[in-house]
Amino acid sequence: MSTRAVPQETPDVSIVVPIYACASCIEPLLERTRAVVRQEGWQAEWVFVDDASPDDAWRILKDEAAKDDRIRGLRLGRNCGQHFAIYAGLEKAKGRFSVVMDGDLEDPPEEIPRLMLRARQGFDIVIATYSDRTHPRWRRLGSQLYFWILRGAIPEGGKLSTFSVVSERARSAYIAAPLAGRAYILVLFGLDLPTAFISSHKEPRPHGASSYDFRKLSPLALRNMLLFSPRRLFCVLATVAIGILLVAVGLWGAWPAVPIWLSCCILVGAALAVSRSYMLARSWSSPHFCEKEMLHE
Questions:
Q1: What are the tens digits of pLDDT across the range 134-188?
Q2: What ranges in 13-125 are assigned the alpha helix state H?
Q3: Mean pLDDT across the chain, nearest whole number?
Q4: Do 206 and 233 sit in the same domain of this protein?
Q5: Domain range for residue 247?
Q6: Tell me, what CATH number does 136's domain have?
Q7: Cβ neighbour number for residue 63 with a 10 Å cutoff
Q8: What is the rounded CA–CA span in Å between residue 114 and residue 128?
Q9: Same structural domain for residues 60 and 173?
Q10: Rounded distance, CA 159 to CA 140, Å?
């Protein structure tokens, strides 16, 4: 059934959803979020960001937008990644509060009122946390190491989700932040605004599988550590280099050439990486070059 609704100039809630390889989830996601919006009596808009999805996501979004004026879609010219897509969606959002959630239905829409209630209590940022026990062991261990290195910025360890609510003030501050689009949650913590956490859960993905495998997660984690915690990363790598030398001395009773060479390479590489991270931070600009097409501007 067609639903035509002209949204208010300032909706209560903007639901921002990055889409990649989950076209089959768009219609059920809309159905479930619409039910939540009706139940709560909110004036809402939906901002979908098609991150150059390889399926027919954009066609589905165009069809849905033609039936409902509250649905807005942004199509990126190439795959820019989830965090760029979130940035692009938040930049287009108009609501007093913005809900950020994945498009694969792992984030339960029925949890949105709980996050919104906390936001209305005076928190500019509300983030859902979840247990990561369903992930493979390698991913859990890697997550623990990753967040340990970033622990100066991350108070909740490895259980954070991009499922969140941000106020209009937090959204504006996020968009203006130097590294906005690089790592959504890390940038939010850098805003130093009142933040709350809500325990939630991840639902099984109804179709397909996550595109975040080891090959994609490893460079993403390294990049974030370089950008957001370069000094701590340097300390960790320096400790590894010194450990290699000490083990070599303990085993061979001397300073063998290979451990010395390897340790020097680690230290030099770490120093260069830290320098490069500062250069990237200074030269960063927003991902406007990705934008290709907009529905209901």
A1: 556 656 666 666 666 666 555 554 478 899 999 999 999 999 988 888 889 888 9
A2: 26-40, 57-67, 82-92, 112-120
A3: 79
A4: no
A5: 223-283
A6: 3.90.550.10
A7: 13
A8: 10
A9: yes
A10: 10
